[in-house]
Amino acid sequence: MDKLELLKGNFLEFLENKICDSQERIKSLTKEELKDEANLEKITLNIVTIFKQMFNVSYNKIVKDKKEYENIKGDYLKYFNTIPASWKEKKEKDEKFGNEEGVIIENLKLSMADTIKEKFLVLYEKYKI
């Protein structure tokens, strides 16, 4: 199995586990009638799903264009600049106007994006050799 396939398999497994965990937490929180907490978990689920889809886009692009392993890093990481940009703007506005709930939501999005990015980079480096 080549490096790119190892990266893909392990990273998608990580994301799938995050998705399953979030789905279970949503069910549990909904059952306990913790609506706000369930809604926050739905946001987490959406962020993981978005970055999973973007990984697949990057992976398919690299494979289609027959590019080297190293190209996936730059292609995928660009999404961590473009997608969260609007979240950062929204967070700044929410902070300015004292919207604590909005700040919490944007921080949650940004934190999950950072977690996903960090895991990608760890796996990328692991299989780079």
Global outline: globular
Mean pLDDT reading: 97
User: Could you give the count of β-strands?
Assistant: 0
Could you tell me the radius of gyration in angstroms? 17 Å
Total of DSSP H or I helical runs spanning 4+ residues: 6
Order of helices and strands: HHHHHH
| Biggest sheet details | none
Structural class computed from helices and strand pairing: mainly alpha
Strand content is under 5%
Extract low-pLDDT stretches: none
| N→C terminal distance | 14 Å
Helix content: over 70%
Helix-strand layout with pairing:
Layout: H1 3-31, H2 35-64, H3 70-77, H4 79-82, H5 85-96, H6 100-128
Helix pairs in contact: 1-2, 1-6, 2-3, 2-6, 5-6
Polypeptide structure, described:
With 129 residues, this protein is mostly helical. The protein has helices at residues 3-31, 35-64, 70-77, 79-82, 85-96, 100-128. It is globular, with a radius of gyration of 17 Å. The model has no long low-confidence stretch (mean pLDDT 97).
Summarize the structure.
By secondary structure, the chain is mainly α. The chain has six helices and no strands.
Attribute tags:
129 residues, 87% helix
